Amino acid sequence: MRGRVREEERIYKERKEWVRVLHCFKKRRMEEEAWGGREQSRAEQSERALQVAMERIKKYPQVAGCPLTCQKQY
Fold first, then answer.
1. Which residues in 7-33 are b (16+ Cβ under 10 Å) and which e?
2. Is residue 46 domain-resident?
């Protein structure tokens, strides 16, 4: 009986570790997509990040809480 419990614990820990690794991989891939890939220069990356941020602000103005989304004219 104890051997079976230990085996289940091992499988659970292993699975938990893989879930963590997969999550980190997905997160890193999403960050790379937001930055536009690794091979671009820093200026291009910051430009792309700015564009992504602007798209998200326009898409979710209530979440962003940014002055850029308000309709006030200066």
1. eeeeeeeeeeeeeeeeeeeeeeeeeee
2. yes
Instruction: For residue 73, tell me if it sits in a domain.
Output: no
Could you tell me how far CA 31 lies from the centroid of its own chain?
A: 5
Give the total residue count for the chain: 74
pLDDT tens-digit map of 16-74: 777 666 676 777 777 777 766 555 566 666 777 777 777 776 666 554 444 455 554 43
Question: Does 16 reside within a domain?
Answer: yes
* CA neighbor of 55 nearest in space, from 44, 67, 69, 45: 69
Provide the domain limits for residue 16: 1-63
The pTM score is 0.31
How many domains in the chain? 1
5 lies in a domain?
Answer: yes
